[in-house]
Each structure stands twice: as structure tokens, then as C-alpha cells.
Amino acid sequence: MENLHIALPSPENDLLNTEQKHHVLLMLYQKIVAENSSCGTFALYSLLCRHAGLSILPNQQAADEKLSEYVTEGSADTWRSSALKSFFEKHPRFRKGLLIFVLLGTCMAIADGVLTPAISVLSAVSGVKLKITELHENHIVIISCVILVGLFSLQHYGTHKVAFMFAPIVTVWLLCLTGIGVYNIFWWNSHIFHALSPIYMLKFLKSTGVEGWISLGGVVLAITGVETMFANLGHFSPLSIRIAFTFLVYPSLLLTYMGEAAFLSKHHEDIERSFYKAIPETVFWPVFIVATFAAMIGSQAVISATFSIISQCCALNCFPHVRIIHTSSKIYGQIYIPEVNWMLMCLSLAVTIGLRDTSMMGHAYGLAVTTVMFVTTCLMAMVMIIVWKQNTFTAVAFLLVFGSMELLYISACIFKVPEGAWIALTVSSIFMAVMYIWNYGTMKKHQFDVENKVSMNRIVSLGPSLGMVRVPGIGLVYTNLVTGVPAVFGHFVTNLPAFHQVLVFVCIKYVQVPYVCEKERILISRVGPKECGMFRCILRYGYKDLQQENYNFENRLVSGLVQFVETEEQTASKATDFCGEFGNSDIEAFDSSVHTTTISYPEEDRARCSCDIQVMTSDIGRVESFLLKDESLQILKAKESGVTYVLGHSYAKSKKPSSIFKKFAIDVVYAFLSKNSTEPNILMKVSPTSLLEVGMIYYV
Questions:
Q1: In which band, very low, low, confident or very high, does the pLDDT at 450 lie, cut at 50, 70 and 90?
Q2: Are 523 and 540 contacting, i.e. CB atoms less than 8 angstroms apart?
Q3: How far is C-alpha 54 from the chain's CA centre?
Q4: Which of 330, 365, 643, 670 is the most buried (most CB within 10 A)?
Q5: Is the distance from CB of 582 to CB of 559 less than 8 angstroms?
């Protein structure tokens, strides 16, 4: 009973008896219903942030709430939702506790990405020992490691390039399972369908008592893998997942489990590796080969889901910056993260080599998955009250039904901590520490920037005393601020009193929506007096958005600046903010009352602004024929002189009276993460010849 192991992604399914088999089937169905409501921990948390003011992202503006994706569904706040919002507003510690709770679920999902490849591949390969009994355990581990290295080496091709061979393998695998299940049912026990009655589950738990409850820590592995389907919604449409699961996957699993139960009803002594022993001799080797490939595909799904999770963590300032590669130009959301891929590979290899036992891996796997499910259920209950405005009874009933079921499994998995479940706790704890410290350091850095930003009046007043001069060209100063002049720019002009003729403060920020459409991507405003030639450009992205490669940013920025200058006086004399799509027809100018005005240019004017900037700047006489204002001509001439990127390179230091824990977190952990994270210039693909870095030290 202690060696119970039922892994859905892998073929090694060691079951106890028919009653427990029914228990697995029933729980599988119930959890599928629950998980169909799941959108992922960060997606649910983002909904709560938008509706309850639990923002963990700095630089949020009132204009962000006008995004089309930001629209809050449902009616006005009820007294229940208002009370819950007020509770979090009055108790910052509970907001922080909720963030930690969300990070716990997220890190357990990442631990799932470490454990799934190891347990799936090792359990599949270990079946060969039934036919080659003299094969040593070390050989099984070596073969598993080779397969794992090959699996992770394929990731850089992207899901769309490897799926063409994965889909036929999965189809063959499911058909094999169905055929073997039907064969075992009719050959060994055609009355096994009676196990679908819940009476057998109750009888099993009643007769086994505490031992039956502890065995749930192994039974839970039959429902793992379900959560991966919903984590991969960025790779496949919801409709395709529903159709495939309802009409192919789920019936196949039912027949497989019942067929294996029928075999065990006549062969109680073969409970070890019952899956492979239930396969007819004539088809063993073909099924073994397909099973090995199927284990790799099950791992592929979890790896892809982990990439998506890390990407969202980066967008929400909960993970160090990493290089995210969009692997498909046609299917949005398919990404590859090299650093994360090799990190997962090393951890999976370490687990495989270190444990060499699928039962211990299964205990850790079960704890990780059940924790993710419980966190998702709790967040869903909060969403039902705050976002969907459901009554308290419905939300509490939902939480009690599914939460109690998940807590039952978690409690059983906790007993397996000494037997391998500690791996999930260790991996998730390390990732939680990294995420929390990174988020803490990032928020402190933003707080420092806000408290030390320089006023425009001071910059103007310092000009004559410093002998400040303007040089030809456009300077792009990257900052985290959406208002004011960043301290790094004040530090720059104080030591080098010269800056470009046209200066643009660029802020790339993420908002708490999944996506931001292109026409709402950019906000442009003027900074200081008109004669200063300073602007602010805010690029807004959703936490699922990707900054596209080959994005012609410079030309599109110049196009947006020219359009802003040309329409500034036409739209409103007091216009301050301008929103428009680079290369799109919609240009929105915002005045001090945040009123928007949309102006549409003809198709030929749009093409001229977005695509012919270089032609315009090469022939100023031709530009004059467009009747551009003097400031527009200055912007185009500055573009012809070149564009320089000014990036701040900040170093965090803890203050002297800080505690030893804070000093360790900031001076050691955060400093190490900052040093080894991907540099902003690499993420933006800035040429070294156009880069100017300004170093600063800030104390937190």
C-alpha cells in the first residue's frame, strides 16, 4: 500500500483493487469539472487586482482603466464584494499574504514542470525490466536521462514544429490504451463496469480506515495532468481541448483504468507494474515504444506550460528578466525561454539520478499538483464574490465542495513528505524565495525612483549654470516612471551637461490585463515647455503580451511623435496625452480631464507616416511639401542624426540599520539575480553603438 503509484501522464499505474479503481475514476471526473473553471493562478489573481485594487504592479494610471480589456464585467458592487475589498484595503498584510499564497501555487506548478518529465520518462522506461530482467537499474536511469536531454533539446524548435509528430503519437497511444482496456475487460472481467458505482469507494474507505486515507496520496496521481491542459490555453484553443478530451482522451482513460482493474481482479499478485503486465505479449514492444514517446509528450505539455507561467511572472515583476522567444509567427502565445528550459532540464536530471524511484517522485508530484488545485479553488471563490458578484452561499459552497476534496488529498500527501514529497516543498520554496525577493527589490527600486524624481523646473533652472547644451539626434531615456523626470536623467545631466535635441522618456510597463491591443499600446505626452523638445512615451503590455522581435520601434516612435505634434493644436489646446497605434489610423489625444479624441487619417497618410520615415528624413525639402510644422521638421532632422538609448544601470544596497535578513535578501540574493538576469538592452536588441548606460546606487 505504501508503494501505490498512479500517474496519468505515464504508463506505470500500480493500483490496489477494484474499489480504489472506482475511486480514481470518480475523482478524475469531479476534478475535471473543477479544473474547467480554472484560468491559472496569475490570471485569477490579475482579475482580483483589477477589481479589488490589489495591484502589485507600479505605474498604474487612470488611463489604463479605459483599455478595452480592462472593462469590468458584471453589475455594481454588492455589499459582499465591497466588504471583501474594504478588508484588503484596510489590511496590507493580508494583501501581502494573498500574494505569497498565489506565489505558492505558482511555484508548485513550476515544481510540477520539474517532476513531470522525470517521473513520466523514468516510469515508462522502467517497464523494459519486465522483458529484460538482467537490466541494471543504472541502465534504466541512463536511458531515462538520455531521453530527457533529447526532450529538452527539442524545445527551441517550438511547439508548432514538434507538434506535427507529437499529435500522431498521442493518437496512436490513446487508441492503444483503448484497445488494451477493452481487451482486458472482456478477457478477464466483463462485470468491471459495476465499479462505477460510488458504493465501492465508500466501502473501500470504510474497510481500510486510516490506511485507505493515506493511500489517497497515491490515488491522487490519477488526476494529475488535467491542469496542464488549461495551462496550455495559449498554445491551443479551448474548443479543441474540450473536443479532444471529451470524445477521445476521457473515454480512453475510462476504458484503460477499468481494463487494468479487470486484470488485477484476477491477478492480485501482479500489482507491481500492473500496466505493463496487463499488455498482451504480442503487442508489448510496440506499446512500450509508443508509451515512451507518450511520456515525452506528456512532459512537453508541462514544459510549455512552465514557459507560459514564467513569462507571466516576469511581466508581473515576480521573476528576474529572461529572454522570451516567440517561436511561432502564426500562433500567438507559443514561446521558448532558453534559461528556464536548461534549468528545468538540470533539475529533472537531478531528481531522476538522485531518487531513481517513481514512488518517491509520485509523492512529490501529488503534493505539488494538489496544492496548485487548492490555490486555484480559493482564488476562484474570491473571484466569484468580487468579480462575478455571486452571493456568498454559492462561493462558500463551491469552496467547501472542491476545497474540502483537495484538502483531503493534500493531507494524505503531507504524510508522504519523508518519503519524497519534500522535493516539491524544497523546489517550490526556492522559487518562492526568488520570486518574493525579486518582487520586493523591484518595488523598492520603484519607490526610490518615485521619491527621487527630478522636477522639470529644476532641470530648466540648472541649464544656464551647468552650461547645458543640446546635441543633434533623438535620445531615448528608459525609465520606470510614468510621471516626472527620473533621477537617472538628473544624475546624467549633472555629470554630463548635454542631451539630445529631441528627448523622449520611454516607459515600458505591464498592466493587469492579459492583452493590450495595438491601437491602445502607446501613450505619448509632452514633458515641460514646448521649446524644450521633451516627450514621454509609455508602452503598455498585458501580462500575456510579448514584445515582438523585428519591431521597427524607432521609425514608429518618430511617426507617433510627428503625428502628436501635428494634431496637438488641432484636437485641443490643452491636450497633454496622446494615445495611438504605431502605424495605425487611430490617434487619441488626452487632455487634463482624460477626455479622448480619435482622429483617423486616410490610408495613404498612414502608410506614409509608418513606412516612409526614412525617405522623409532623407529629403527635408520633400517633407516641407507635407506642410509639417517646424517642430515636426526638427524631429525628422533629429532622427536623421541618429537615435541614442540611455539606460539606467541601478545597483541596490540595503541601508545600514537594516536587519540581517534584509541585508542578505538585498545585498546577496537580489544583487545576484540582478547581475545574472538578462540585460534590458539585450531584451530590446539595442545595438552597442547606440547604447549609453548610466550607473546609480540606490538604498532600500
A1: confident
A2: yes
A3: 18
A4: 365
A5: yes
8: enclosing H helix or E strand: none
Please choose, from the candidates 504, 485, 445, the residue with its C-alpha nearest in 3D space to the C-alpha of residue 650. 445
Amino acid in position 501: Q
Is pTM, for the whole model, over 0.85? no
Q: Are 563 and 581 in contact (CB under 8 A)?
A: no
The alpha-helical segments, DSSP class H, found in 467-624 are 487-495, 553-571, 603-611, 613-618, 620-624
CA distance 136 to 305: 34
Please give the biggest Cα pair distance in the chain: 96
Contacts of 207 (CB under 8 A, 6+ apart): none
Identify the helix (H) or strand (E) that includes residue 33: helix 18-35
How far lies 186's CA from each of 183, 192, 255, in Å? 6, 9, 11
User: How many C-alpha atoms does 532 have within 13 Å on its Cβ side?
Assistant: 18
Strand partners, 695: 649
Read off the amino acid at residue 337: I
Q: How many helices (H) and strands (E) does the chain have?
A: 28, 13
Q: Looking up cell 477626455, which residue turns up?
A: 595
Which residue stretches of 387-475 are H helix? 392-398, 404-414, 422-451, 456-466
pLDDT-derived band at 134 (thresholds 50, 70, 90) equals confident
